[in-house]
Amino acid sequence: MKVICDRGALLDAITLVSGAVAGRTPRVPLTCIQLSAGRRDGVGELLLAATDAEVMMRVRLSQVDVQEPGEVLIPADKLRAIVSAEDAEPTLTIDAEGEVCHIRGADAHFKIYGFPAADFPPIPEFADIVAGTESLARAKGVFSYKAGALDTLVGRTLFATARENSRYAINGVLLKREGKKLEMVATDGRRMALCRSTVGGPDKDTKAVSCIIPTKALSQLQKLFRDPDEQVQVAISDNQVFFSLGTEKEPHRAVLASNLVEGTFPPYEDVIPRDQDKKVAFDRDSMNSAVRRAALLTNEESRGVRLKFTGKQKKLELTSRAPEMGEAQVSVDLNSYEGEDIEIGFNPMFLVDVLKVVSEPDVIMELKAPNKPGVIKVGGDFLYVVMPVNLQ
User: Most buried one in 99, 128, 258, 292, CB count within 10 A?
Assistant: First the structure.
């Protein structure tokens, strides 16, 4: 194999696929990046692939001059370090014979001992997943969606997932498609984020499909988004999900595949309160600032901020206190308030998290009682349920 690469584009591609490289593992190929050089429609390309056996990623690099097709498996940390260090070079030459790889710049030569390329786990082609082959079952659900809209769905739910919870099903985000309705839902048991959207294409005879996608896979997927108008093709099989990003000029420029989280997602519709009788409208930025400031005087023992809503003055007073630290009091003007006055406590970080992911300036909060969950709504497609905390 011998290719001449644009160094900047190569480093970007290495950085992306490094997200799928395994950390500590006795399986050496999972700590490597596979480089495969070839030609498609007469144009040279270099494919970079990595996997940790759970998440698989492949990025297609077209800014290359392929002088000799081939493939090689190289330790990811060394490859990234060398390409990053050669920052004065516009291009780098990579050539390999067997398991030995040479990287050359104008004044430097690096010789890296790699591993047999055949040891790298194969990543299926997206077209094979969609159509099915003798060894691959046909995907049970396939649809296309714009990258910008999918990024919004992921961003508004991913933050609410559980971290290493023994209930494995909530360690990921539920993706559910039924007809033209698309939902993503996440919860950690103390809060829940639900974002809805619609997906184009015919919905007649389209079977409902759902799956639980690991948080790591969605975090890596967000890094692959480049153009909000770019199409993302999604294919769901019994135990895996595949995302293919690209355009007509650059199809399948990046493919990410992931094993799915096993288990049954909680019945999330049941936890959405239906009888809230207090409705608050406020400015997102004003509330975000107030909660952040009130949270300054909280600690692990007093992880809560008291919210006192006064309807007559349309005021919100946020207070917090921590032993041996002090107290904080912040006031916020409300856009509107309906219902009786109420005092309720929330974990401030649970409020900050949701206010960070909504872009709309006008936010609605619905409440019932100090011991009942609150609901934050933005538009008609996003809601967030958060449990209160007891304050002494």
Answer: 258
